[in-house]
Design a protein that fits this description.
The structure holds two protein chains of two kinds. Chain A is of the alpha+beta class. Chain A is built from 16 helices and 22 strands. In chain A, 45% of the residues are buried. Chain B is built from eleven helices and six strands. The radius of gyration of chain B is 25 Å and the shape is elongated. At the A-B interface, helix 9, strand 21, helix 13, helix 14 and helix 15 of A face strand 5, helix 5, helix 7, helix 8 and helix 9 of B. Strand 21 of chain A pairs antiparallel with strand 5 of chain B.
Chain lengths: 630, 320
Amino acid sequence: MNRYPVWKYAIIVIALLVGAIYTLPNFFGEAPAVQVSAGKAAMRVDTGTQARIEEALKTAGLQADLVTFDGNSVKARFDSTDNQIKAKDAIQKALIPDPADPSYVVALNLVSRSPAWLSALHASPMYLGLDLRGGVHFMLQVDMQAALTKKAESLAGDIRSTLREKNLRHGGISRNGQTIELRFRDTATRDAAKRVFQDQFAELQTVDVPEGSEYKLTATIRPEAARKVQEQAVKQNITTLHNRINELGVAEPVIQQQGVDRIVVQLPGVQDTAKAKDILGRTATLEMRLVDESAEGREAESGRGPVPFGSERFTERDGRVVIVKKQVIITGDSLTDAQPGFDSQSQQPKVDLTVDAKGGRIMRDTSRENLKKRMAIVLFEKGRGEVLTAPVIQGELGNRFQISGAMTVMEANDLALLLRAGSLAAPMEIIEERTIGPSLGAENIAKGFNSVTWGFLVIVAFMATYYMLFGLFSGIALAVNLLLLVAVLSMLQATLTLPGMAAMALALGMAIDSNVLINERVREELRNGASPQAAIHAGYDRAWATILDSNITTLIAGVALLAFGSGPVRGFAVVHCIGILTSMFSAVFFSRGLVNLWYGRQKKLKTVSIGTVWRPEGSGAVAKSDANGV
Amino acid sequence: MEFFKIKKDIPFMRNALIFNVISFLTFVAAVFFLFSRGLHLSVEFTGGTVMEVSYSQPADLTKVRGVVSGLGFADVQVQNFGTARDVMIRLPVQKGVSSAQQSDKVLAALKADDGKVVLRRTEFVGPQVGDELATDGLKALGMVVAGIMVYLALRFEWKFAVAAIIANLHDVIIILGFFAYFQWEFSLAVLAAVLAVLGYSVNESVVIFDRIRENFRRYRKMNTVEIIDNAITSTISRTIITHGSTQIMVLSMLLFGGETLHYFAMALTIGILFGIYSSVFVAAAIAMWLGIKREDLVKPASKKEDGSGDPNDPNAGATV
């Protein structure tokens, strides 16, 4: 009766094998590495970059243990930190000719030392949280009201110029918070204005408010349009943060949206919070200026003459020199949007730009006077300008115009992104900040590890003395539980934190409950006089319902924590829940397998090793002994 | 080895009233301390800045306090953290000042005073986050309570659900009472521990209830009190061994986990100890007073399903 069919053993063996494979990478530790990733949105790291890095290492006489390309970055692993630093210098020299203008981020990093065949199976170690590896964590809140106010402001300007174009006389346009108020003297103009709104300002909804002799119209941003503005604002802020953090040279920055209006930034390994905060909060500026196309300007552009007075020399992303006039046409403040798209006639990729009304007016005048000339869009960061693009003005421009030409889709995307990234869409505020020193991280790992190890050993020792062989089986099942738990966490690439390690310890402490239940039940069956085989069977069978009930109640608590917890509590909850699930497998299914393997074959089993089965003298109410005794 | 050589069923229910009075008094004391002293909430809930710095020699707290309050921060807490060389500085949220910059300012001042000071950890939490965490914590607690009650009501009976929740919520209040009395820091990790304990000690009640249900089926002649006494007696060994094992783990965290896990482990320890007490003495007694009956649990349909029918069948449970 206590036998498993072959397929059950097969499941156990497969689970153990898979568990072992995915747990394995955690034991190899980490090796010093140099990581190269793109330093600009327009730059891509590819296998070509990998070849250049390998070449650079060869010329420097350095031997990397492994050079891998993972789609976003190239990582080169070394045997010592000495070589790692040398390699960083060599790669930096080879890839970045101009240190003032880095197109790649070359950062020191730690990568798993696990062999290539494990990486090929996508078996990688658990990701260590900041409290275990050290670093900085920021949570930023985007000021959505400010974003909406900014949008309303630019819309008010647009309305003003549109009404002027249509020759509709109004009695004043004002912005009150996020609502725009328009006054009219008669209903006819007001209705005409309403039609204009319907045609051109779909994102606004209008309400009539009769006020004395005047007709007032209030326009507010529609909720769905407002939502779009907010989404856009968060997205743009994330892009901007990405660009800025790239300068810090962080190997694996995490920049994620959390909730509707929050952004989490995690910078593992960064210790200089002051600098990080400074960089996150900096504003970049965008300027549109005319290219100096005078004879002197052209001379200077080709490098044959000095830069003429009143002009400046900038470079484009690909290194081409552009001589640009110092006079600024409009700044990035006027730019309200930049979106990639396709030209409806030529089917070529393009970038649509939208500037506010004031900017539109200036653009119109400037473009009329400078037809067929080039206009440069310059992005200033850290006080250093870079020409993003310098297209030729093809016609008279309004407040909406496009940049098109020889661009790939990706280039159009990148350009739109860079244009938008120039500044933050809305101000942000740091609402949470956490810094963990690297030594504290290492200490935390040791603390977590010691807690789990000692607790585990003492429990196994106790179980083995108290329940003998059954206790040993329980101990093995507990070890399997730990193995599976770590394997699942590694598979999910969950972030391990100190609370996570605490949850691991707690999960083991609670998991043993199932085995205690089973062992006690088996003893009780033996005490009541069941034959060993029947006792094992009944013990497992009857304990199962209880185990299920109790695990489900614990799981309910775990799920609630997962649903409402944030930060460290989430880390705890994830491990807690997974631990409960793996414990059901290991404590019941797996330990039964062990018991069946050991005792199942023996038809005439006389005794089982489960410690003392004590029977009360005489017949108490507890022991309902019956004839079927041993 | 066998620790529990119990000859007869222990008449737990005979003294149920006494146990419940003890537990009620503890509960009242806990509530009293919660209101009179309040919880010492961590910055995660209140908002503010915490810095952990470490010196090369044992730190002079008064000097550190002087340096920090010299910067114009009011209501600054400075205390040792773990060892004498580690110092924890807690600054409240300041209006107007960009709070994220506080830590830099403090560290600069401390560095000027003693160059060997090392920043180990800083944490800044804005007030809006704190409020949110508090409400989320309460929501989580509500969800745990509701979830467990619904599950127990479905699996057993509403009387058991009510009994289990009363018994275990009183554990939670008692844990909070301890934190209020000793003014231990109540952090997010402690909240997680409290909720984990709630789920865990409901386990305990579930095990006993399971046995009560089984006994109702098996021993037709016993009355409710005897059935409950028998159920508790026959599960007591498991209860104590299980909790002992979990406590071993928690103790290991208490010993090796350092300052960060200290209060987490503390909350678990109190929760585990009172968990045993409340499920053994309180939950079953409440269920008894709510008037559980054989008919509540032994429904004709479920009896057939279960298969462990006749109590006098020598081969009960020994299916092949």
